[in-house]
Design goal:
By secondary structure, this protein is an alpha+beta fold. It is 15% helix and 26% strand.
């Protein structure tokens, strides 16, 4: 929030949930840029990768990556062990890559 003086900012945020305090000085944009701008992290997951789910209720299941949403940091996967292919959306930090589609089997 931006305000002319401290009193008006205190009045505006009085009894609002999640307000922890007021910064009593002018802050440059560079100091808060990482909180305002979404930055797509470097993602090492690609479409077609075989992944293992390491979090959520599907822990231990293997799945194939169908789609990646870098902004939301979510991956849409299809479970390999499922009888009916059903797309499931999972956060990227809940999966790990176990095999790349481009590597293939060379046996």
């Amino acid at each position: 929030m931006e305000s002319e003086d401290r009193d008006s900012s205190e009045e505006a945020v009085y009894n609002l949930p999640y307000i922890k305090g007021i910064v009593g000085r002018t802050i440059s944009y560079d100091e808060i840029k990482n909180m305002l701008e979404s930055n797509a992290a470097t993602i090492s997951i690609e479409d077609g990768d075989i992944v293992e789910i390491i979090g959520s209720t599907l822990k231990g299941e293997k799945a194939k990556v169908l789609r990646i949403d870098k902004q939301k940091e979510e991956v849409v996967v299809s479970l390999l062990g499922a009888v009916v292919p059903l797309p499931v959306t999972i956060k990227m930090d809940n999966i790990k890559v176990i095999r790349r589609e481009s590597e293939g089997d060379t046996e």
